Amino acid sequence: MSTVGFVGLGNMGGPMAANLAAAGHEVKVFDLVPALIAGVEGGTAQASALDAATDVDVFISMLPAGKHVAGLYLEEGVLARLPKGALAIDCSTIDPETAQRVAAAAADKGIAMLDAPVSGGTAGAQNGTLTFIVGGEADALERGRPLFEVMGANVFHAGANGAGQIAKICNNMLLAVQMAGTAEALSLGVDNGLDPKVLSEIMKQSSGGNWALNVYNPFPGVMDGVPASRGYQGGFLVDLMTKDLALAMTTAEQSRSSVPMGSLTKNLYRVHEQTHSAGRLDFSSIQWLYRPELVGGEGS
Ligand code: NAD
C-alpha cells in the first residue's frame, strides 16, 4: 500500500481520493474548501497542499485548469516539497504546454510526472470506472498503474508528457460536438411532434446512436439519474467544457489544424453560457439553446 497526497477534492477528486482510501492506501487530502476535505471518507485531513506533499510515495492533483496546476507545483512549492523519487500524477484537464513545463521541472528535481486526464464523468469517479489517458514515461505509468486500477477501469498510454492532454482535448471536442448535435436532433423531433423519449430510443438503436443518447441524455425527463433530470445540477460544468473547447482551439492553432465543428460548438457553448448564465450548469444544458421554454425548469 502507498502513501498518497491528493489535492483538489471537487466533483472528481473527492470520490477518486475516497476510492483510494477505501482500497487501503493512506491518503493525505487537501482542498482550498475545508468542507471538501472533511467529506473524503477515509482520508487524512491536511492543513495545506505542502503537508499533503510531505513524505508521500505518490502525489495526485485534480484541479480546474493549467494556471492552478502550475501554481500548485511551481509557485506553492509542491515539487520542492515532494521526496526525491516520488511520482506526481496530474489528472486535471489542462493545456499540453503547462503539462510539459511542470513535468520538465519535476524531472529536474528527480520526480517522475504523468499527465493523466480522465474520462468517465462524476459517475466514473464515484464508481472507480474512469478512463485514464496518460502522457509520460512508460515506467512511470507502470508505477502509477495500481492506483489507476483502483480509480478507473481503463488506462491508455497516449505518448510522452503532454500527449495525455492532447488525446483528452480531442475527445472532449468530439463530446461537445456530439452533445450539441444530439440536443439539436431532439429539438427538431419535438418541433415536429415527436416524444423526445421515443425519438431518443429510436436514435440510440440507429446510426445516430452515441454516448449522450446512451448514458447522458440532454432532454429533461427522458433519462433518470442524469443532470438533465435534476435541473442540470452537478455533472460536468459548462465552464469546464468551454475551457476544454478553448484548449482545443489553441491546440488546433498551434498545429494549423482545421476544426470548424469544434469552433462552431465552442461558440454555441459561449452563447449558451452568456445567455443563460449557465457556467455552473452541466454541459448537457446546451439543450436550452434549442428549447427556450425549458430555461429555468425544475431544479435549476
Ligand atoms: P471542481 O471545480 O469540482 O474541483 C476542483 C477543486 O480544486 C475545487 O474543489 C477547488 O477548491 C480545488 N482547488 C483549486 N485550486 C486549488 C489549490 N491551489 N489547492 C487546493 N485545491 C485547489 O472540478 P472537477 O469537476 O472536479 O474537475 C477537475 C478537473 O477534471 C478539471 O480539469 C476538469 O476539466 C476535469 N474533468 C472533469 C470531469 C467532470 O465530469 N466533472 C470529467 C472529466 C475531467
Unreliable stretches (pLDDT < 50, length at least 5) are none
General form: globular
The termini sit apart by 42 Å
Strand content: 5-15%
Mean pLDDT: 96
Bound molecules: nicotinamide-adenine-dinucleotide
The radius of gyration is 20 Å
Helix percent reads 40-55%
**How many H/I helical runs?**
14
Coarse structural class: alpha/beta
Spatial sequence of strands, sheet with the most strands: 3-2-1-4-5-6
Assembly form of the protein:
single chain
Number of extended strands: 9
**H-E string:** EHEHEHEHHEHEEHEHEHHHHHH
Sheet with the most strands, sense and barrel status = 6 strands, parallel
Summarize the helices and strands and which ones pair or pack.
Elements: E1 3-7, H1 13-22, E2 26-30, H2 34-38, E3 44-45, H3 49-52, E4 58-61, H4 66-75, H5 78-81, E5 87-90, H6 96-108, E6 112-115, E7 118-119, H7 121-127, E8 130-135, H8 138-151, E9 152-159, H9 163-191, H10 196-204, H11 211-215, H12 238-255, H13 260-276, H14 287-290
Helix pairs in contact: 1-7, 4-6, 9-12, 9-13, 12-13
Nicotinamide-adenine-dinucleotide (NAD) binds next to helix 4 and helix 7.
Would you mind describing this structure in some detail?
This protein is an alpha/beta fold and 300 residues long. The protein has 14 helices and nine strands. It has helices at residues 13-22, 34-38, 49-52, 66-75, 78-81, 96-108, 121-127, 138-151, 163-191, 196-204, 211-215, 238-255, 260-276, 287-290, and strands spanning 3-7, 26-30, 44-45, 58-61, 87-90, 112-115, 118-119, 130-135, 152-159. The strands form two sheets. Strands 3-2-1-4-5-6 form a six-stranded parallel beta sheet, sandwiched between helices. A three-stranded mixed beta sheet has the order 7-8-9. α2 links the parallel β2 (26-30) and β3. It starts with a strand and ends in a 10-residue tail after the last helix. The mean pLDDT is 96. The structure holds nicotinamide-adenine-dinucleotide.
